[in-house]
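One example copied in:
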Amino acid sequence: MDLATAKLIGAGLAAIGTGAAAIGVGNLFGQFLQGALRNPSAADGQFGRLIFGFAVTEALGIFALLIAFLLLFAI
């Protein structure tokens, strides 16, 4: 296996993290909506935690995309 092939395979594997982040964000908001519909009075107290979880999940997805781009174009 040559270097170019290894870079493409590594970038593809790193890009899986962006898809996993999308699944995580969907799961996060879906579970929040389900909990808010079950107990609407507690939804306001949990909204800050929802936004924090969203930010952390998106940051991990962006980091995975950054690694994929670094493997493709910088190395």
